[in-house]
Amino acid sequence: MAVDRATLIVGHGSRDARANLEFERLVARFAATRGGLEVRHGYIELAAPLFETPLRELAGRCEQVSVVPLFLFAAGHVKDDVARAVASARREFPGVALGASLALGVHPHMTAAASDRLAACLGAATARSRTVLVVVGRGSSDPDANGDLCKMARLIAEERGFEGVVPCFVGITQPRLPESLEWVARTAPERVIVLPYFLFEGELTARIESQVAHFRAAHPSIEVALAQPLGSHERLFQLVEERAAQAFDEVHRLPCDSCEHRTDAAGGEPAASGGAEDAR
Question: How many CB atoms lie within 10 A of CB 35?
Answer without folding.
Answer: 6
